[in-house]
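Repro:
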Amino acid sequence: MPALPIYTTPAMRRLEELAAPASGTLMERAGAAAAEFARALCGDTAKAILVVAGPGNNGGDAFEVAAHLKRWFFRVSVVFAGERHKLPKDALLALGKWEAAGGTLLGEIPGESRFDLAVDGLFGTGLKRPLAGAHGALVQRLNALGAPILALDVPSGVDADTGAVLGRAVRARHTITFIAHKPGLLTLDGPDHCGELKLDTLGLDPVGLLEPEGMLLDADILGLVITPRPRNFHKGQAGSVAVLGGAAGMVGAAVIAGRAALKCGAGRVYLGLLTPRPPYIDDAQPELMLRKPAALLEKELVDVLVAGPGMGKADSARKLLRAALAAPVTIILDADALNLIAASRALATSLVKRKAASLLTPHPAEAARLLGVTTGKVQADRVAAARTIARRYRCIAVLKGNGSVIAEPGGKFWINPSGNPGMASAGMGDALAGIAAALCAQGIEPLQALLAATYVHGAAADALVAAGSGPRGITASEVIDSARALINAVR
């Protein structure tokens, strides 16, 4: 699989144990790597740097950083928010290095000083309780300095496993994380607090030490699944897609999904609209073929079904979805199809019993309905929610949002880093469903297709922003065209 491994906190602890015998002191390595990064951010001229050290091993990393920077003739001030006699052994040794270099400890951030860089070494991956009291006030003061902040491993106050803010959290401009990625840095509020994220493995091979729980997607996924077409090629080889949905007043959702499937490479795309009299023919995309929904299922015209965009919740939609779930082809379930399944034990059972591949694309509220919990509960642990949906419904699921999480029934997960806030507009989910359907129709294995579709969907929006067309005002139709360009750019 492409990209970099992701480990939750318990797995990171295990990695550190496995690495310890051959690694020397990981704290020394982390401190040296972070100090080099801080020096690169500042340049070599003497500048004032504030280092905030916490009561645990993250504080030890901070002392190591401070000692290096002081030896390199930076003006370093260290605030220690802990008690010396309670420091872990390695952190106490690191404090000794700082003091041996002539450093002293401050109890609070000097009110009159100005700093060119602040280093956050207050709390790391072990934090699980809300920051309050003196520690919360220290984070607030750090954020108010106006200086760029470099966070060590995890911005203090961010849950390393979920990305949730624990009361208050440091808003870093840069974060250097060690050994491997943590899920909380990549989803929910984590990316907003990390700033630019840099990984330093400290010379370790984490995958060689411990099988990863998750992976971080990157552009390599496209090169793995998009292959050149031979010149001797016809539309039948590109597969066929049917979109079932488009009830009265919601035809546009089905049209967007159909356009996405067509423009991202499917050979034929049919729209099975639930509205009895479609209010318009899509002049912009006359290649989309209209068929009665039931006829698409009876004649088995297609390789992939997309069910849900604009489907509604009427009895006719429920009946159509029941027939779609019985079809022996790959199905992508979105929007109202997910809501109907969440409300019907019979439909949920039909989904679980399917032999062909099922791909689910819920946003957090739809995921909450599928799981019978609140949206807040889903967002509190997005990785766990995605994994539970995949396991419960025997499907491949993508939980959409900041750092979309893709999961398969066995528990493996992937986090997607592409995308931006411009995607918070109508029709984006329909476009994703259509892109995934196009890739499946062209013969790409369903899991790989969903991974690639999720990545290119976000990357297409990023390309629009880079070209000056966003983030405000990006439309799903623009994302479809941008995704087509990215897919065709793969060589």
